[in-house]
Fold this sequence. Notes:
Layout (H helix, E strand, L loop, with lengths): L9 H23 L19 H30 L4 H26 L6 H28 L7 H24 L15
Amino acid sequence: MWWFQQGLSFLPVALVVWSAASFVFSYITAIVLHHVDPLVPYISDTGTIPPERCLFGIMLNVSTFLGMATMYVRYKQVSALSPEKPKILRLNKLGLTLGWMSCFGLCIIANFQKCILYYIHVLGACLTFGVGSIYMLVQTILSYLMQPELHSKDIFWARLAMFLWSCSSILSSILCLGSGTKTQQSPQDLH
C-alpha cells in the first residue's frame, strides 16, 4: 500500500494538487483568451475576468474545504498523540484556529476579485498568507515540542524550512507589489 492510501493522508496531497491545478487552469484560460500577458502575470489577474474568474473561484472554494479538512485531521492527530500535555494542546487549538482563519482568507480571495473589491481581496490575501504563515510557525513549534518521542528532528527542520520559505515569499511579494492600489481595472490594464 502506498503512503497516501493510508488513512486520511490523501487530504494534504489532494489539497496541493487541487490548489496548483486551480492556478494553472485559470492561468491557461486567461492566456488562451488573451486576458493577461503570458510572462509572469500577477496571480490575482488570472482570475479576474470571466470565464477564468468562475473557474478560479470554484476551484479555490474546493481548496478551502480541503485545507480545513487537512488542518482538522492534523489537529486530531496532535490531540491523540499528546493528550496529557496542556502546552501542546493549547498550541494545537491555536493552530486549528489560525489554520481555519487562513482557509477563510482563501475563500475571500476566491469570491472577491482584485478588480472589483480590492481591499477585501487584500484582506483575504493577508489572512491566507499572513495568518497561514503563523499557522506554519505554530506547527513548527509543535513539531519541536513533540520531538524526539513523536517527531524526528527531520520533521522539525522540514517545517522550519517551509516556514522560512513562506516568510521570504511573502516579503518578496510585498516588495514586488508595486502600484497595485487601483480599485478598478480594465482588461487592458491586466496586460
